[in-house]
Design a protein that fits this description.
Blueprint: E1 2-4, E2 10-18, H1 21-33, E3 41-46, H2 47-53, H3 61-68, H4 78-84, E4 89-92, E5 97-100, H5 102-110, H6 112-125, H7 130-141, E6 145-151, H8 154-166, E7 170-172
Antiparallel strand pairs: 1-2, 2-6, 2-7, 3-5, 3-6, 4-5
Helix pairs in contact: 1-8, 3-4, 5-6, 6-7
């Protein structure tokens, strides 16, 4: 599924449904090595999942610099490093979701109305069918993690999907 942004750049959305931290770190590292940058991903999980799977250290300039430079956070895990960057994530009140990445910016920009539509509305806006978006939402409510890749080309999306499937990641496209 593809969506066109205001800048008229078309992205293909690939979502990996993850069950634990090890799987999320492997999926994240694979996607980054496949030609994407951290800015092309959104990470979504419940607040409880974040607390259970990721020990986020105090925000620091060195951690922010490492993430901005594309380095994988070895000590805290790649996904945890992204979540730790100041301003990189939002918590949606009432839904208990933590979102870091482009979808977080879209939800924050849309204001309170977006919180009502929640993750389903954000994913539909990113080109995901409503049925698939509800599947992602159900996974999140069960304590899972979703990594949303905003791939610049279909070829990149295909590569991410192939690599994630080799790591037993449930892929939604």
């Amino acid at each position: 599924m593809s969506v066109q942004t205001q800048e008229k750049v078309t992205y293909t959305t690939v979502i990996g449904l993850i069950d634990n931290r090890d799987q999320s770190d492997a999926a994240w590292s694979t996607a980054l090595s496949g030609c994407c940058t951290p800015a092309e991903f959104t990470v979504v999980m419940s607040e409880n999942s974040m607390k259970r799977h990721f020990m986020i250290p105090e925000k620091s300039a060195s951690l922010q610099g490492a993430v901005a430079g594309g380095a994988v956070g070895v000590a805290v895990g790649a996904v945890a490093a992204v979540l730790a960057v100041a301003g990189a994530s939002i918590v949606i009140p009432g839904l208990g979701l933590v979102i870091a990445g482009p979808l977080a910016a879209a939800l924050a920009g849309a204001g309170a109305g977006a919180a009502v539509g929640g993750i389903v509305g954000a994913l539909v806006g990113a080109g995901v069918s409503e049925a698939k978006a509800k599947h992602v939402q159900a996974h999140l409510h069960k304590g899972g993690i979703a990594i949303v890749a905003h791939a610049a080309t279909t070829k990149v999306a295909d590569l991410i999907e192939k690599e994630w499937k080799t790591r037993n990641v449930d892929v939604v496209r």
